[in-house]
Amino acid sequence: xxxxxxxxxxxxxxxxxxxxxxxxxxxxxxxxxxxxxxxxxxxxxxxxxxxxxxxxxxxxxxxxxxxxxxxxxxxxxxxxxxxxxxxxxxxxxxxxxxxxxxxxxxxxxxxxxxxxxxxxxxxxxxxxxxxxxxxxxxxxxxxxxxxxxxxxxxxxxxxxxxxxxxxxxxxxxxxxxxxxxxxxxxxxxxxxxxxxxxxxxxxxxxxxxxxxxxxxxxxxxxxxxxxxxxxxxxxxxxxxxxxxxxxxxxxxxxxxxxxxxxxxxxxxxxxxxxxxxxxxxxxxxxxxxxxxxxxxxxxxxxxxxxxxxxxxxxxxxxxxxxxxxxxxxxxxxxxxxxxxxxxxxxxxxxxxxxxxxxxxxxxxxxxxxxxxxxxxxxxxxxxxxxxxxxxxxxxxxxxxxxxxxxxxxxxxxxxxxxxxxxxxxxxxxxx
Length: 431
Description:
By secondary structure, this protein is an alpha/beta fold. It folds into two domains: about 5-155 and about 155-160 and about 230-320 and about 355-430, Purple Acid Phosphatase, chain A, domain 2 (4-Layer Sandwich), CATH 3.60.21.10; about 175-220, no CATH class. It has eleven helices and 26 strands. The strands form six sheets. Strands 1, 2, 5, 6, 21, 22, 23, 24, 25 and 26 form a ten-stranded mixed sheet that branches. A six-stranded mixed sheet has the order 8-9-15-18-20-19.
């Protein structure tokens, strides 16, 4: 007989220290988190003291925070972190390894990143008085240079993240295919690819597949886009779930994914839906999604929750203290410009971007129980992060009674057949 309790949030892009642990805005929220066994957030920043070089590319903002912010995550009660995401390599391998060291020193259970692919993909285990929980973390949103390398008997691997890549196939009609092939022939868009095949650097294409630049097209009866999980990544993930299932009372999967279906950030990509369900088929007990910084729908699949995105928990990407020259250059700023100038340029003085979209500043904390392997009592606690405030003020979460947040989640979850009721300002899902 086992009874485990869980709490989960989305992204914690934390760059500032908590102003107080005595205010009700903190204590009310910490109480919800601390009453559970497994307490999760996604760490969306590197934590070190400038111990890495800025990468040539970033997750959007070069994310670096003082290791002291880990004390504040602990103050909330978090004991499990994922950090496989698009910011893991913002400060290259040195920043990654420094972050890993500080997480270890803080005694966090953390997963999804490591010195090689085996370390990055390994299940990590949280020991609680009520049972053992495994966490496996992946990200689909990462530059290829950030993917952990597999080690060999004769050569070490490469530090990086545990990837969940995906394949995109565009299906077009016969007429559309002929047009693409004609354009490709006239523009030489495939010249480099053709030469690489000829010289043996990549394998020849399947006869049914036509590449137009980097995009894969297949002729079919209708025009559509299909995304599917990368076969090798999905296979590795399933193998790790099988391993963890035999070593723990529950297995939780963290998936960081910005990718969407169509043009709506609230709609999870096809491959994400498929990967989540395959993970549960393999034995996972819950899927915690995050990445787009807004809420996505919730699906109950085989009596297991799939949170396609829990939005933001802490969101302070507008209060980073330093950014590399690359950031300034893209906004035509020179060395005389300071960090405030750079952030003003990105947001056009808070008139565009995240600051103007209320969805980024309203989210939930999810809690649930697991009794003898069965999920029960899923509760959704609304939080707000300071929409409309100045950028140095917003970003901290506060528990609120805001039925509109739950109603939004009701609409997002309806296509998945999930019914959410509202009781005393809290969303309830019956399983």
